[in-house]
Amino acid sequence: MNARRVDVLAGIVFFLASGLMIATAKTQSSTTPHSAAPGQVTNPAGKKAEEQFKNIQVLKGIPAEELFPTMQFIAASLGVQCDFCHVQGAFEKDDKKTKQTARKMMEMMFAINKDNFDGHRAVTCNSCHRGNAKPQPIPVVMTEEPKEPMGAPKLADAKENAGLSPDQLLDKYVQAAGGAAAIDKVTTRIMKGTIDFGGKSLPIDIYSKDPDQRIWFTHLPEGDSVTAFNGHEGWLAAPGRPGVRPMQGSELDAASMDADLHLATHLKPMFSELRLQGTEKVGDHEAYLVVGQREGKPPIQLYFDEQSGLLVRLVRYGETALGWLPTQIDYADYRDTNGVKIPYRWTLARPSGRFTIQVSEVKQNVPVDDAKFAKPAEEQKPPAK
Known about the structure:
This protein is of the alpha+beta class.
């Protein structure tokens, strides 16, 4: 298996994009701590990008933890990989003209938003590029009939006044999942199954333990790719790469949410405001869309099946200096496990790609040693001669 595939697997669960940029770049310091409270991520170190990385010119002043997500936003908007602008193994070099152009484009984008939109991010890289390395100035022709009339609203606003409030929909979700008492009784969960991506299928093992601890092992021919969160910090490791790669920023925020065994009962206190925005088709069913606002963070979109009340889709955004980077998770194949309904299949999609987890075996409330979630010790470098 080639190195690129290993990189993707190393970050396949919590990366905002494929993980290639973060796994291959050389940083000058390690991660920042994380608070275990749902939806609360802090950065006590408070380092700026130029304090942690070399040769930062345009993105001075942004938090260091936002630099790689920002690079991923550019890669997703242009449909390119790291080496389109950067010299592999020497990201700080300015040898490539595309890197100089990227800096000019970012400055242009900042100026457009400052001069025309009061500094709000109304225009981003994706506004013009839409997945192409070069902007597309000519509209494309329609090659097939649209599935719905052009200009039709995406959401069915008529359902907004159906008598349901966001709080009622969240309560219905808790009841559909087994009720608060049954959900909160779950202390551990062990899952075995497969992860499918790019036409390949590999075995995985997932261990979860309350509060907010989870570790994934993707079994590769060369060894295990690991994605872990211990309630305070997260990291990734891949065979053939020394040490671990720490999670930062919005990665930690996502990891905390995914590791929460009681997420259904924790959704309400997570948000400062909840808003019902009608219904939308998810698969073959209509789903209510509830948008949750969090203080100082991008919103989260929750889709609840109109019939069952279960959560069938979650859309969250990673904060970057240039715009929000989306992640969509679709939940399916809900099964009753010890009185709690949980999805046995979920598909995670980002601009860089998608993968599907299919669970075949689940055990709950069985012993899981805390040592399973212990972060590996950092490798000590030999003293300079």
